[in-house]
Amino acid sequence: MISERGSSPFHPGELEVQHRAGVGDGIRRRAQVAIRKEMPEQHRDFFANLGYVFVGSADRDGLPSASVLTGPTGFLSSPDPGRLLVRACPSKDDPLSDNLVVGAHLGLLGLDLTNRRRNRLNGRVASADAEGFEVHVHQSFGNCPKYIQVRQNITSDQFSSHQRPRVEFKQLDEALKRVIQNADTFFVASCIRTQNGEPDTYDCDISHRGGRPGFVLVGDREITVPDFSGNLYYNTLGNFSVHPYAALLIIDFLTGDLVHIRGRVEILWSDPRVASYSGAQWAWRVYIEDGYFAPSASIRSGPEVEFSPFTSTTGLWRNE
Q: Is residue 318 situated within a structural domain?
């Protein structure tokens, strides 16, 4: 999505994918209303009650990263509709630590895993210090609850003194593959160069993806993801069509272990395997360039999972 709304909240890449999907003008007209320049009161209250938030950022070369920040209830607050305050900082080895500078454009996803409610916010960093940062809102909008699995008893080991160091990798070993293959949820960050001509600056976005365990197809150096129909905005695929790079954040909710992957994206518009994949329109593939595994570095939940009824109608990869 573009950082400043003009006649349309969508950039050419999003519009191209919408056209390919047969999305009519009605969706775009509704988006003109639904995608706001400021946060409505219900969104401000929603963020203020969260204990975690997902953040998409990018470096000066346009490589996106996906992060999760945690804190006590109230660590997110909105003093007025145009601002969100985040009283948390990423760890020094999180890519967000380097990307979090004044003027940077971020995508934030507020997601309550206990009830499937989610709201998105895109904005620009107005200030940052050792306590956190402030985002000036460019876009605020809700998302449908499709493919979100419900989890309870969400906790964080953010302040654990026993956290082990992260491990970097260029390809997936068997242990990493198991984490990804068992996942029913992950988060994807994408970006495009800003539309206002600022050098080395990228508009960023982060989105949720969900499916049955095994919905992500995993190889040593690549990951393939089916793309299910959501709100029909096609923010992520639209970004990929213009700037084909992604960051994936996969969380093992039982252990709090975190896998972060970055790489180049190929959109599989006509892969014949997708035709037999229930619920999938297309697929996209990430060719892994780098990643890291961070043990006990993220949120965790209890073992019970309530799958979305939409998730239950989707398929799995066949003949692999």
A: no
The CA–CA distances, whole Å, from 91 to 226, 243, 258 equal 31, 27, 13
Are the beta carbons of 52 and 299 closer than 8 angstroms? yes
Token readout for 107 is 């995508």
pLDDT tens digit string along 144-181?
Answer: 899 999 999 999 865 444 557 899 999 999 999 999 99
Count of domains for the chain: 1
Phi-psi region of 132 (alpha: psi -120 to 50; beta: other; left: phi over 0): left
* Cα–Cα distance for residue pair 312/284, rounded to 1 Å: 21
Asked if residue 5 belongs to a domain, the reply is no
Tens of pLDDT, residues 253-272:
999 999 999 999 999 999 99
133 beta partners: 86, 128
CA distance 259 to 291: 7
What whole-number distance in Å separates Cα of residue 144 and Cα of residue 139?
16
What's 36's DSSP letter? Answer: B
- Answer whether 34's CB lies under 8 Å from 26's CB: no
Q: Is 167 left (phi over 0), alpha (psi -120 to 50) or beta?
A: beta
Kindly report whether the global pTM for this prediction surpasses the value 0.85: yes
Distance CA 299, CA 4 (A): 32
Distances, alpha carbon 117 to alpha carbons 46, 141, 146, 150, 295, in Å = 9, 12, 10, 10, 27
Distance CA 78, CA 90 (A): 20
Query: For position 129, which CATH number holds?
Result: 2.30.110.10
Instruction: List residues bridging with 56 in a β-sheet.
Output: 66, 107
